[in-house]
Amino acid sequence: MLFMYPPRAPERINGHTYFVHGLQIYSEVELSGVPKNKFKLDEKYVHIREGLPEGVEPAFDQKGGQWIFPDYLRLNQRGDYWVLEHVDRVRLYVNASEIWVEKLRDLEPEDITIYILASGLSTVLLLRGVFPLHTNVVVKDRVAIGFVGQQGAGKSTTSAHFVQRGWTLVADDVCSVRMTKDCHSYAVPGYPFMKLWPDALDRMGEDSESHPRVMSGFDKRRWAVDAFAGEDQPLKALFEVVREPAGEALRIEPVVGTEAFQLIASNAFRGPVVLAMSKEKDHFRFCGDLATCIRVFRIYRPEGLDTLGHIYDLVGKQLGDV
Amino acid sequence: MDDQLKFAPAPEAIYNKIDEEVVIMSLANDAYINLNEVGSQIWELLIGSPRSIDELVLTLIAEFDISENQCREDVSVFLKEMLSKGLVVTHS
């Protein structure tokens, strides 16, 4: 069964409708930077609202659960809801068709947006049997590629460079991937902005100060992108960005076999949540299927942002074979 | 190890084959195990039907350029390791 509860049609249309990660969303909480979408909701929409689900006491003393990120994000269960708690900030109560937002302190609208877009919607996707990747995806001429890598490796900077070079953004940070039985995979559009550090924006020729912060107290800025994919795009390859010391040669190498599988599996968005929900078996199958259906490469990137142009050229050469 | 004893994949082991390599996941301990070419070959033989060491060795020496003694030793070591990880069970 995909849905815990049959969603109810909204009683009053005083919320906002959005379409993110392939999910129809009816939200009584406005999502900053996400364009509203006028469409008729079907029975599978996700309902987002403030407050607590019925029967849950406010600010309960959440014992147990497990840390997803120590001292920052904790996961628990309360009745039929998975509870994601960003410590001292917000709790999200999530099932396959609802997200309830319990604020633990005053929060700016953009803060709530990021918590919903990342923790909230990714959990809904998992509950619906979809395993989002931690990746930025861009597309050109119906060839979508994703960049993965550890924090600080440069995946966002690299994908932003591609957007500046005329590619279209599909997803930032989180990307839902849809696969068909005949081994075609599709990257599902997220939202039309990227989260970039100020120095990366400045080096791109953008004035970082003129871009709003992604969250209060967090330095990353929201870079709104006009060229945004309106529909699912054929995902052809993933590129892992790995930092190398300055002076090493920039190079791209294919990653094949079980190493490709491991690369994909290790770039699940919120991998610990997959385990906590006991979905590792389905995730394993998904990663195996994806590794069979797309190409995987590793970009060895020496220190220094001036490698971006060379990365662009090298990736282009690899895509000739994709 | 009894060369007549048959071996089979453990029920809680699931696997993916990517290119010519096999990766196995043990649901018991959430571990991923990558198999090399020979290991992948042995695994696929076991998937087909439970096999004894003798049967595995016979098939492998027909496929690979390896002596029977070396093959028998390698298969024994492989099966012992897979048994210890709970990925293979003995089958009567």
Task: Describe the 3D structure.
The complex is a heterodimer of chains A (322) and B (92). Chain A is an alpha+beta fold and 322 residues long. Helix content of chain A is 24%, strand content 32%. Chain A has seven helices and 19 strands. Chain A has helices spanning 109-127, 155-164, 198-203, 257-266, 271-276, 280-293, 308-319; strands at residues 16-20, 23-27, 46-50, 66-69, 73-78, 81-86, 90-94, 98-103, 133-134, 136-140, 143-148, 168-171, 174-179, 185-188, 193-196, 221-224, 233-244, 251-255, 295-302. Chain A is globular, with a radius of gyration of 20 Å. Chain A starts with 15 loop residues before the first strand and ends with a helix. In chain B, α2 (53-63) packs across α3. Helices cover 43% and strands 29% of the residues of chain B. Chain B has a three-stranded antiparallel β-sheet. In chain B, strands 2-3-4 form a three-stranded antiparallel β-sheet. In chain B, β3 and β4 form a beta hairpin. Chain B is an alpha+beta fold and 92 residues long. Chain B has three helices and six strands. The mean pLDDT of chain B is 89. Classes of the chains: A alpha+beta (322), B alpha+beta (92). Chains A and B meet through α4 and α6 of A and β2, β3 and β4 of B.
